[in-house]
Design brief:
Mean pLDDT: 92
Number of helices: 10
Radius of gyration: 24 Å
Largest sheet: 6 strands, mixed
Helix content: 25-40%
Protein backbone atom coordinates (compact mmCIF):
# COMPACT_ATOMS: atom_id res chain seq x y z
CA UNK A 1 0.00 0.00 0.00
CA UNK A 2 1.33 3.47 -0.80
CA UNK A 3 0.07 6.82 0.40
CA UNK A 4 -2.65 8.33 -1.73
CA UNK A 5 -4.84 11.40 -1.18
CA UNK A 6 -6.31 14.24 -3.17
CA UNK A 7 -3.43 16.60 -2.29
CA UNK A 8 -0.97 14.46 -4.30
CA UNK A 9 1.58 14.77 -1.50
CA UNK A 10 3.87 11.77 -0.97
CA UNK A 11 5.23 11.75 2.61
CA UNK A 12 7.91 9.17 1.79
CA UNK A 13 9.34 11.20 -1.12
CA UNK A 14 9.22 14.30 1.09
CA UNK A 15 11.10 12.44 3.84
CA UNK A 16 13.78 11.23 1.43
CA UNK A 17 14.46 14.85 0.47
CA UNK A 18 14.16 16.18 4.03
CA UNK A 19 16.70 13.74 5.52
CA UNK A 20 19.27 14.93 2.97
CA UNK A 21 19.00 18.51 4.32
CA UNK A 22 21.35 19.24 7.25
CA UNK A 23 19.41 20.90 10.06
CA UNK A 24 21.66 20.43 13.10
CA UNK A 25 23.31 23.86 12.96
CA UNK A 26 20.65 25.90 11.16
CA UNK A 27 17.08 25.11 10.12
CA UNK A 28 16.99 27.79 7.42
CA UNK A 29 17.24 25.38 4.47
CA UNK A 30 14.82 22.92 6.05
CA UNK A 31 12.32 25.66 6.80
CA UNK A 32 12.55 26.95 3.22
CA UNK A 33 11.95 23.43 1.92
CA UNK A 34 8.81 23.07 4.06
CA UNK A 35 7.46 26.48 3.05
CA UNK A 36 8.05 25.69 -0.63
CA UNK A 37 6.28 22.35 -0.18
CA UNK A 38 3.26 24.06 1.37
CA UNK A 39 3.24 26.65 -1.42
CA UNK A 40 3.29 23.94 -4.11
CA UNK A 41 0.20 22.43 -2.54
CA UNK A 42 -1.63 25.78 -2.30
CA UNK A 43 -1.37 25.99 1.47
CA UNK A 44 -0.63 29.51 2.65
CA UNK A 45 2.01 29.68 5.38
CA UNK A 46 3.93 32.30 7.30
CA UNK A 47 7.20 32.38 9.19
CA UNK A 48 6.71 34.29 12.42
CA UNK A 49 9.44 36.27 14.15
CA UNK A 50 10.62 33.41 16.35
CA UNK A 51 11.27 31.21 13.29
CA UNK A 52 8.16 29.01 13.46
CA UNK A 53 6.22 28.00 10.36
CA UNK A 54 2.44 28.37 10.64
CA UNK A 55 -0.25 27.26 8.20
CA UNK A 56 -3.98 27.11 8.83
CA UNK A 57 -7.12 25.56 7.38
CA UNK A 58 -10.44 26.98 8.54
CA UNK A 59 -13.72 25.17 8.14
CA UNK A 60 -16.94 26.91 7.08
CA UNK A 61 -17.83 26.83 10.80
CA UNK A 62 -14.60 27.60 12.69
CA UNK A 63 -16.37 28.25 15.99
CA UNK A 64 -18.44 25.07 15.84
CA UNK A 65 -15.53 22.72 16.46
CA UNK A 66 -12.13 22.50 18.13
CA UNK A 67 -8.88 24.09 17.06
CA UNK A 68 -6.57 21.14 16.35
CA UNK A 69 -2.85 21.92 16.20
CA UNK A 70 -0.32 19.64 14.50
CA UNK A 71 3.15 20.35 15.87
CA UNK A 72 6.68 19.07 15.47
CA UNK A 73 10.18 20.49 15.07
CA UNK A 74 12.50 21.24 12.15
CA UNK A 75 15.86 20.90 13.91
CA UNK A 76 17.98 17.82 14.55
CA UNK A 77 20.93 17.04 16.77
CA UNK A 78 24.53 16.93 15.53
CA UNK A 79 26.19 15.53 13.55
CA UNK A 80 24.40 15.24 10.23
CA UNK A 81 24.04 11.58 9.18
CA UNK A 82 23.71 10.94 5.42
CA UNK A 83 20.50 9.66 3.84
CA UNK A 84 20.11 6.04 2.81
CA UNK A 85 17.08 4.04 1.72
CA UNK A 86 17.61 0.31 1.88
CA UNK A 87 16.35 -3.02 3.15
CA UNK A 88 16.10 -3.25 6.92
CA UNK A 89 18.65 -5.05 9.04
CA UNK A 90 18.03 -6.89 12.31
CA UNK A 91 15.84 -4.91 14.69
CA UNK A 92 14.94 -2.48 11.92
CA UNK A 93 12.48 -5.12 10.70
CA UNK A 94 10.35 -4.58 13.79
CA UNK A 95 9.47 -8.24 14.14
CA UNK A 96 8.12 -8.63 10.62
CA UNK A 97 9.07 -11.80 8.80
CA UNK A 98 10.60 -11.35 5.33
CA UNK A 99 7.90 -11.46 2.67
CA UNK A 100 7.95 -12.67 -0.91
CA UNK A 101 8.19 -9.04 -2.02
CA UNK A 102 11.27 -8.52 0.15
CA UNK A 103 12.86 -11.69 -1.20
CA UNK A 104 12.40 -10.36 -4.73
CA UNK A 105 13.97 -7.02 -3.82
CA UNK A 106 10.75 -4.99 -3.88
CA UNK A 107 10.16 -2.43 -1.10
CA UNK A 108 7.99 -3.85 1.68
CA UNK A 109 7.58 -3.69 5.47
CA UNK A 110 11.36 -3.99 5.90
CA UNK A 111 12.13 -1.00 3.66
CA UNK A 112 13.74 1.76 5.78
CA UNK A 113 15.07 5.28 5.49
CA UNK A 114 18.23 5.97 7.46
CA UNK A 115 19.89 9.25 8.34
CA UNK A 116 19.72 12.12 10.79
CA UNK A 117 16.13 13.16 11.32
CA UNK A 118 14.68 9.99 9.80
CA UNK A 119 12.59 9.46 12.95
CA UNK A 120 13.40 12.55 15.05
CA UNK A 121 11.51 14.26 13.74
CA UNK A 122 11.38 14.47 9.93
CA UNK A 123 9.43 11.21 9.70
CA UNK A 124 6.73 12.59 12.02
CA UNK A 125 6.91 15.90 10.10
CA UNK A 126 6.18 14.10 6.82
CA UNK A 127 3.15 12.44 8.42
CA UNK A 128 1.82 15.71 9.86
CA UNK A 129 2.27 17.49 6.52
CA UNK A 130 0.39 14.70 4.76
CA UNK A 131 -2.47 14.86 7.24
CA UNK A 132 -2.63 18.65 7.08
CA UNK A 133 -2.66 18.80 3.29
CA UNK A 134 -5.28 16.06 3.02
CA UNK A 135 -7.59 17.65 5.58
CA UNK A 136 -10.84 19.39 4.67
CA UNK A 137 -12.27 20.51 8.02
CA UNK A 138 -16.06 20.66 8.19
CA UNK A 139 -16.01 22.39 11.57
CA UNK A 140 -13.37 24.02 13.74
CA UNK A 141 -9.94 24.72 12.33
CA UNK A 142 -6.60 23.03 11.78
CA UNK A 143 -3.15 24.59 12.29
CA UNK A 144 0.26 23.24 11.33
CA UNK A 145 2.84 24.71 13.73
CA UNK A 146 6.50 23.82 13.17
CA UNK A 147 9.17 24.97 15.60
CA UNK A 148 12.88 25.60 14.94
CA UNK A 149 14.72 24.64 18.15
CA UNK A 150 13.14 21.77 20.09
CA UNK A 151 16.53 20.10 20.48
CA UNK A 152 17.91 23.24 22.15
CA UNK A 153 15.85 25.75 24.16
CA UNK A 154 12.41 25.45 22.55
CA UNK A 155 12.17 29.21 22.19
CA UNK A 156 9.87 28.79 19.18
CA UNK A 157 7.33 26.72 21.08
CA UNK A 158 7.60 29.00 24.09
CA UNK A 159 6.80 31.97 21.86
CA UNK A 160 3.88 30.21 20.18
CA UNK A 161 2.31 29.49 23.55
CA UNK A 162 2.87 32.94 25.05
CA UNK A 163 5.50 31.78 27.54
CA UNK A 164 8.04 34.43 26.51
CA UNK A 165 7.78 38.13 27.37
CA UNK A 166 6.16 40.38 24.77
CA UNK A 167 4.00 37.72 23.11
CA UNK A 168 0.54 39.25 22.77
CA UNK A 169 -1.14 36.75 20.45
CA UNK A 170 -0.17 33.17 21.39
CA UNK A 171 -1.38 30.12 19.51
CA UNK A 172 -4.72 29.21 21.05
CA UNK A 173 -5.23 25.52 20.43
CA UNK A 174 -7.82 23.19 21.93
CA UNK A 175 -6.17 19.90 20.95
CA UNK A 176 -2.52 19.18 20.12
CA UNK A 177 -0.95 16.33 18.16
CA UNK A 178 2.84 16.46 18.57
CA UNK A 179 5.07 14.57 16.16
CA UNK A 180 7.82 12.44 17.73
CA UNK A 181 8.93 8.82 17.24
CA UNK A 182 6.48 6.70 19.25
CA UNK A 183 6.29 3.53 17.17
CA UNK A 184 2.78 4.62 16.09
CA UNK A 185 1.54 4.56 19.70
CA UNK A 186 -0.56 7.37 21.14
CA UNK A 187 1.51 8.79 24.00
CA UNK A 188 -0.57 10.71 26.50
CA UNK A 189 1.99 11.77 29.09
CA UNK A 190 5.68 12.49 29.63
CA UNK A 191 7.87 13.37 32.55
CA UNK A 192 9.28 16.86 32.75
CA UNK A 193 12.94 17.74 33.07
CA UNK A 194 14.35 20.36 35.44
CA UNK A 195 17.96 21.11 36.27
CA UNK A 196 19.11 22.78 39.46
CA UNK A 197 22.24 23.40 41.51
CA UNK A 198 22.49 22.86 45.26
CA UNK A 199 24.90 25.53 46.46
CA UNK A 200 26.62 24.93 49.82
CA UNK A 201 28.45 27.92 51.31
CA UNK A 202 30.74 27.47 54.33
CA UNK A 203 33.81 29.19 55.79
CA UNK A 204 37.38 28.56 54.65
CA UNK A 205 40.07 27.67 57.21
CA UNK A 206 43.42 25.92 57.45
CA UNK A 207 42.88 22.18 57.30
CA UNK A 208 45.12 21.70 60.37
CA UNK A 209 42.74 23.70 62.58
CA UNK A 210 39.38 22.72 64.04
CA UNK A 211 37.83 25.74 62.42
CA UNK A 212 35.74 26.79 59.44
CA UNK A 213 32.56 25.28 58.02
CA UNK A 214 33.26 22.50 55.53
CA UNK A 215 31.05 22.82 52.44
CA UNK A 216 32.40 19.64 50.85
CA UNK A 217 31.65 17.64 54.00
CA UNK A 218 28.14 19.09 53.91
CA UNK A 219 27.72 17.54 50.48
CA UNK A 220 27.35 14.19 52.27
CA UNK A 221 24.16 15.44 53.91
CA UNK A 222 22.96 17.14 50.73
CA UNK A 223 23.39 13.91 48.77
CA UNK A 224 21.48 12.04 51.45
CA UNK A 225 18.63 14.51 50.98
CA UNK A 226 18.75 13.92 47.23
CA UNK A 227 18.72 10.15 47.73
CA UNK A 228 15.66 10.21 50.00
CA UNK A 229 13.86 13.15 48.39
CA UNK A 230 11.10 11.03 46.84
CA UNK A 231 10.69 8.58 49.70
CA UNK A 232 6.99 8.00 50.12
CA UNK A 233 6.06 9.91 46.96
CA UNK A 234 2.97 8.67 45.16
CA UNK A 235 3.52 7.22 41.70
CA UNK A 236 1.69 8.97 38.87
CA UNK A 237 -0.92 6.64 37.30
CA UNK A 238 0.63 7.01 33.83
CA UNK A 239 4.24 8.04 34.48
CA UNK A 240 5.15 6.23 37.68
CA UNK A 241 7.39 7.87 40.29
CA UNK A 242 9.51 10.99 39.78
CA UNK A 243 13.30 10.67 39.70
CA UNK A 244 16.07 12.85 41.11
CA UNK A 245 19.70 12.26 40.16
CA UNK A 246 22.87 14.02 41.31
CA UNK A 247 24.97 14.42 38.16
CA UNK A 248 27.88 16.82 38.82
CA UNK A 249 29.72 17.90 41.99
CA UNK A 250 32.36 20.60 42.34
CA UNK A 251 34.04 21.95 45.44
CA UNK A 252 37.27 22.97 47.15
CA UNK A 253 40.22 25.03 45.94
CA UNK A 254 43.27 23.76 47.82
CA UNK A 255 44.26 20.42 49.29
CA UNK A 256 45.17 21.93 52.69
CA UNK A 257 42.14 24.18 53.13
CA UNK A 258 38.69 23.62 54.63
CA UNK A 259 36.53 24.28 51.54
CA UNK A 260 34.09 27.16 51.68
CA UNK A 261 32.06 26.21 48.61
CA UNK A 262 30.54 23.14 47.03
CA UNK A 263 27.94 22.81 44.26
CA UNK A 264 25.91 19.75 43.29
CA UNK A 265 24.00 19.71 39.98
CA UNK A 266 20.86 17.60 39.93
CA UNK A 267 18.64 16.30 37.14
CA UNK A 268 14.92 16.09 37.93
CA UNK A 269 12.41 14.00 35.98
CA UNK A 270 9.10 15.27 37.28
CA UNK A 271 5.50 14.06 37.23
CA UNK A 272 2.35 16.17 37.50
CA UNK A 273 1.55 18.37 39.30
CA UNK A 274 5.11 19.32 40.29
CA UNK A 275 6.36 22.63 38.90
CA UNK A 276 9.95 23.76 38.50
CA UNK A 277 9.63 26.32 41.29
CA UNK A 278 7.84 23.86 43.56
CA UNK A 279 10.65 21.36 43.07
CA UNK A 280 13.34 23.98 43.77
CA UNK A 281 11.72 25.11 46.99
CA UNK A 282 11.09 21.57 48.25
CA UNK A 283 14.65 20.45 47.56
CA UNK A 284 16.09 23.47 49.39
CA UNK A 285 13.96 22.62 52.44
CA UNK A 286 15.04 18.96 52.31
CA UNK A 287 18.76 19.79 52.16
CA UNK A 288 18.48 22.30 55.02
CA UNK A 289 16.66 19.71 57.12
CA UNK A 290 19.34 17.14 56.39
CA UNK A 291 22.05 19.56 57.54
CA UNK A 292 20.21 20.51 60.73
CA UNK A 293 21.64 17.56 62.70
CA UNK A 294 24.96 17.35 60.85
CA UNK A 295 28.34 17.04 62.66
CA UNK A 296 30.00 20.19 63.96
CA UNK A 297 32.37 20.57 61.00
CA UNK A 298 29.30 21.52 58.92
CA UNK A 299 28.02 24.14 61.37
CA UNK A 300 27.36 27.40 59.60
CA UNK A 301 27.06 25.93 56.07
CA UNK A 302 24.30 27.74 54.23
CA UNK A 303 22.11 26.21 51.53
CA UNK A 304 20.68 27.70 48.35
CA UNK A 305 19.05 25.86 45.45
CA UNK A 306 18.88 27.60 42.07
CA UNK A 307 17.26 26.44 38.85
CA UNK A 308 19.62 26.57 35.88
CA UNK A 309 19.18 29.79 33.94
CA UNK A 310 17.54 29.39 30.55
CA UNK A 311 15.67 31.73 28.21
CA UNK A 312 12.61 29.51 27.96
CA UNK A 313 10.66 27.70 30.69
CA UNK A 314 11.63 24.18 31.65
CA UNK A 315 9.68 21.36 30.02
CA UNK A 316 7.30 20.31 32.76
CA UNK A 317 5.47 17.00 32.95
CA UNK A 318 2.10 16.67 31.25
CA UNK A 319 -0.68 14.08 31.23
CA UNK A 320 -3.81 13.76 29.09
CA UNK A 321 -6.80 11.64 30.04
CA UNK A 322 -6.33 8.35 28.13
CA UNK A 323 -10.10 8.29 27.49
CA UNK A 324 -10.14 11.65 25.69
CA UNK A 325 -11.51 11.63 22.13
CA UNK A 326 -8.17 12.86 20.79
CA UNK A 327 -6.45 9.77 22.19
CA UNK A 328 -9.00 7.39 20.69
CA UNK A 329 -8.89 9.18 17.32
CA UNK A 330 -5.11 8.75 17.13
CA UNK A 331 -4.83 5.27 18.68
CA UNK A 332 -7.75 3.85 16.69
CA UNK A 333 -6.50 5.41 13.48
CA UNK A 334 -3.02 4.02 14.09
CA UNK A 335 -4.29 0.48 14.63
CA UNK A 336 -6.24 0.57 11.38
CA UNK A 337 -3.44 2.19 9.40
CA UNK A 338 -0.76 -0.20 10.70
CA UNK A 339 -2.87 -3.19 9.72
CA UNK A 340 -3.57 -1.70 6.29
CA UNK A 341 0.14 -1.43 5.44
CA UNK A 342 0.95 -4.90 6.75
CA UNK A 343 2.83 -4.04 9.95
CA UNK A 344 2.96 -6.65 12.75
CA UNK A 345 -0.25 -6.87 14.80
CA UNK A 346 1.49 -5.56 17.93
CA UNK A 347 2.89 -2.49 16.18
CA UNK A 348 1.06 0.78 16.78
CA UNK A 349 -2.09 1.93 18.50
CA UNK A 350 -1.16 1.39 22.14
CA UNK A 351 -1.84 4.16 24.65
CA UNK A 352 1.18 4.82 26.84
CA UNK A 353 3.55 7.51 28.17
CA UNK A 354 6.36 8.95 26.04
CA UNK A 355 9.93 8.26 27.10
CA UNK A 356 11.43 11.74 26.74
CA UNK A 357 10.62 15.37 27.51
CA UNK A 358 9.15 17.26 24.55
CA UNK A 359 7.59 20.57 23.58
CA UNK A 360 4.25 18.89 24.25
CA UNK A 361 4.84 20.18 27.77
CA UNK A 362 4.13 23.75 26.63
CA UNK A 363 0.71 22.83 25.21
CA UNK A 364 -0.67 21.33 28.42
CA UNK A 365 -3.11 21.43 30.08
CA UNK A 366 -4.88 21.27 26.70
CA UNK A 367 -5.36 17.62 25.66
CA UNK A 368 -2.12 16.58 23.96
CA UNK A 369 -0.96 13.37 22.27
CA UNK A 370 2.58 12.61 21.11
CA UNK A 371 2.61 10.39 18.01
CA UNK A 372 4.72 9.40 15.03
CA UNK A 373 6.63 6.71 13.15
CA UNK A 374 9.95 5.37 14.39
CA UNK A 375 11.44 4.61 17.79
CA UNK A 376 13.57 6.37 20.38
CA UNK A 377 15.33 3.00 20.83
CA UNK A 378 15.00 -0.63 19.77
CA UNK A 379 16.42 -3.89 21.10
CA UNK A 380 19.87 -3.02 19.75
CA UNK A 381 20.03 0.37 21.48
CA UNK A 382 19.43 4.02 20.70
CA UNK A 383 17.79 4.95 17.39
CA UNK A 384 16.87 8.64 17.67
CA UNK A 385 19.96 10.86 18.06
CA UNK A 386 22.15 7.89 17.12
CA UNK A 387 24.36 7.18 14.11
CA UNK A 388 21.97 4.35 13.16
CA UNK A 389 18.82 6.50 13.13
CA UNK A 390 16.17 5.04 10.85
CA UNK A 391 12.42 4.80 10.23
CA UNK A 392 10.39 2.13 8.46
CA UNK A 393 8.82 3.39 5.24
CA UNK A 394 5.52 1.68 5.90
CA UNK A 395 5.32 3.34 9.31
CA UNK A 396 5.62 6.73 7.66
CA UNK A 397 2.72 5.81 5.37
CA UNK A 398 0.69 4.51 8.30
CA UNK A 399 1.40 7.63 10.35
CA UNK A 400 0.30 9.87 7.47
CA UNK A 401 -2.98 7.97 7.17
CA UNK A 402 -3.46 8.14 10.95
CA UNK A 403 -3.06 11.92 11.09
CA UNK A 404 -5.46 12.38 8.18
CA UNK A 405 -8.04 10.06 9.75
CA UNK A 406 -7.72 11.67 13.19
CA UNK A 407 -8.17 15.16 11.74
CA UNK A 408 -11.25 13.99 9.83
CA UNK A 409 -12.72 12.39 12.96
CA UNK A 410 -12.11 15.45 15.15
CA UNK A 411 -13.04 18.14 12.62
CA UNK A 412 -15.79 16.34 10.70
CA UNK A 413 -19.52 16.87 11.01
CA UNK A 414 -21.17 15.54 14.15
Amino acid sequence: MSWEDDSDFDPVSFLEDAVRIPSHESVDEMREFVVETLDRHDADSEVVADGCVLAEKRSPAPEAGPHLVLNTHLDTVAPHVPFERAEARGDERGGAAPSDAEASGEPDAADVIRGRGACDAKGPLAALLAGFLAAEPERGRLTLALTPDEEALSLGAAALTGRLPGIDDPLDGDLFLVGEPTGLDACTAAKGRFQATVELSGTAAHAAEFAGANAVAAAEDALAAVRTFDAGADAHPQLGPPKLTATVIEGGRATNQVPADCAITVDRRSVPPESAEGFRSSLADAVRESLADAPSDRDGVEVAVALTDRESPFLEAFATDPDHELVEAVAGGARSAAAAVGLPSDRGGDVRPFGAATEASYFAPAPTVVFGPGDLADESGAVAHAEREYVRVREVEAAAATVADAAAALLGER
